Amino acid sequence: MRVTRNARHPFYERCHEVLDEIRQQGRYRTFTPLSRLTDRFPVYEEGMAPPPEGREVVVWSTNDYLGMGVVPEVMEAAVAAVREHGAGAGGTRNIAGSSPLHTELEAELAALHGKEAGLLFVSGYVSNQATLQTILTSMPGWICFSDQMNHASMIAGIKGARGSQTVIFEHNNLADLEEKLAAAPADAPKLIAFESVYSMDGDISDIAGTCALARKYNALTYLDEVHAVGLYGEEGGGVSQRDAVADQVDIIEGTLAKGFGVHGGYVTASAEIIDFLRSTASGFIFTTALPPSVVGAALVSVKKVRAENWRRDAIFERVHAFRQRLRAAGIPFTMTPSHIIPVPVGDAERCKRISARLLREFGHYATPVNYPTVPVGTERLRLTPGPSHTDEMMDDMVRALSVLFREEGIVHTWQPQPEGVG
């Protein structure tokens, strides 16, 4: 019997249409092949081959803010965990058993944030998505008040909570938040979801003010500290620790992949909330646990970051030094109260072009940030100088930006702004 082949599925054509549209808008994304050099960080090798075939490049866009991913003790802990426990976890913690490493790391993270318990997830994205979705489907009538600029992972969890209601409040606007809280039914279960450091604009939320509103209107608070853990507070517990308000927040979520330089996400909260999530969150229950190497490395990293406050001093000294150089050169940048330095470009194609020329002509890599990560018209380079960026690296980067901004016709529009960081 002859089999007639079906016509090509329309989804294939849809893929082409969407990708063509993305290309036309100048926001088609390509991966830049870079290999981190553990003994030279933040220097990387460009391409697939080592020098002299590959070229050394200074990277300015890493989220390993403190460089903990290349600290010898952290790397050695990963190797030791592989030798002792193997390369993988062998399954979920319910099926394959729960390693003492996981339990110890959860206790360490709970102590970092002053909470009773913690729970590890395979990534920060999953910890946000799974936790918010699980809570917001736990009983009828939930209303989630979500900051306008919340991360995609938080939005995914909130949208995935069928049956709950979402109210979006203006970014970092407590007056708008209160107005919306006051308009909600008094007896409805409420949750306020927000971040401490917003990673694209580098601004910081008013955690104390948000918690005060939560108490007034009987709402739970869910705080994403992903871009703050390790960097702020006496032990790196984030902005909530720095501002001495961590005890006022119900649930604090964080990552092991940025300030701690490894991988994975987590939430910390009261014992009953964590036990509830452990028992009901599908994003935890049905996912293979983090491998021993990751957990072992993260455990050492968290302990070192908590104990070594000089690392936080070092990053903010470097941030200040880099801003001074940008200011002296007249290069426009957004002054923020955090460690993140946005350099506005304002056009997707030009942003990509400047990034490409920085790499090709000057040996510096800065990721172009375009829509949908940021709104159209606000495209920028997002720079994150760290403790290992030397004065020489900074001087060379500023010279490169000066040349490119002049050639690209970007007006130096920086105006004096109040200093404030950390």
Automatic annotation (TrEMBL):
InterPro entries: 4pyrrol_synth_NH2levulA_synth, Aminotrans_II_pyridoxalP_BS, Aminotransferase_I/II_large, AON_synthase_class-II, PyrdxlP-dep_Trfase, PyrdxlP-dep_Trfase_major, PyrdxlP-dep_Trfase_small. Its EC number is 2.3.1.37. Keywords: Acyltransferase, Heme biosynthesis, Pyridoxal phosphate, Transferase. One of its GO terms (molecular function) is 5-aminolevulinate synthase activity. It catalyses: succinyl-CoA + glycine + H(+) = 5-aminolevulinate + CO2 + CoA. Residues 56-401 form the Aminotransferase class I/classII large domain. Pathway: Porphyrin-containing compound metabolism; protoporphyrin-IX biosynthesis; 5-aminolevulinate from glycine: step 1/1. Its cofactor is pyridoxal 5'-phosphate. Homodimer. Belongs to the class-II pyridoxal-phosphate-dependent aminotransferase family. This is 5-aminolevulinate synthase. The gene is hemA.
